């Protein structure tokens, strides 16, 4: 017992020393500044609404709490069918004055986002805002990955983003834009169907996509490159920045139920992860680049920990595979994600990342291809034990992690003119140029490639 206590104490000292001291979050300009809480973050969920009869009330009654933010996925350009399918949800969420993180996914490619698509979007966003929806538009997320048709096309992506952002700002008064790449471990995610393949001629062509992505100028697109900056559309059209940060397990291929390593959530954001999944310590510090340096509030767009129910057997489900209890595995992750002090699980997230303003848990249970068709339970609401312990933990810091009632109180009385005035401040400030972070030397990249696993990022919805 004394040895265990000593080990925990050493871990806490390590996390306290490794974490960069952080000043309180500054007052945020623009529309996002009126939506973000002054302290801590709004608590949000990604929900399979069909399990609750497409009723937010049913979900809230089952879960026992009211999320401040909800994630809705839609293909883009918008179709009549999809708009009709989400209209009931938008009406319910608007009546609650809840945040809707509207994730627009251009599965037909960026070429289809023409003036007609933008005009339709303009009309629809204005209509949803009239319902009371507080919309945060997450357009073409995880664009630095290799699994979506809009991926790894920095030039076209940034141009289309700016067009979408202009529509959002012109047609609404409260809606904002969320730029949300995938965390960089495993970049460029080799083997994905939409990985940009670059030859030497393309890399040497000034201004080409390949030249932009090979920003350490070693002749290759690899994890020695900055995988964030080439896709950044500009301060003037980005209100929030965000990351998807999941615990998929310890090593690729995924499927085994592994308890998260201590500090993994923090290390994935800061680019300091070096563990069972490989040495990813040459990934840039996302929070430092975009929150500390550029003053952008941050959203954890999606997070959860893989728990394989092994209903079909296969990888990760054998007699010799680890079999931690669900509460042990998921609890180890949420204690990192919502940490308000340094513990043996990792550094304080609220102290080190005060500009994280929304955290969304992927509260869904569904079959996953990466788990060989087994059902993966990412949720915190389907088990009474898990739900009780999750709520108990986040509410230990009730003024830090906050549900819908606190958001409703903050938004009460804020008019369209309040948001218009805030937008004018950002427009006057303009956009600072961004330069990719210098790459690491070749020896580090060589070391990294030895432990790299191809296409390690599965899809979540």
From TrEMBL:
Keyword list, A-Z: Glycosidase, Hydrolase, Signal
Positions of the GH26 domain: 23-390
Extent of the signal sequence: 1-18
Alphabetized Gene3D superfamilies for the sequence: Glycosidases (3.20.20.80)
Lineage top rank: taxon: Eukaryota
Matches recorded under Pfam families: Glyco_hydro_26
Gene Ontology terms for molecular function: mannan endo-1,4-beta-mannosidase activity
Protein's GO biological process: substituted mannan metabolic process
Region (Disordered): 429-461
Similarity comment text for this entry: Belongs to the glycosyl hydrolase 26 family.
Protein name (record): GH26 domain-containing protein
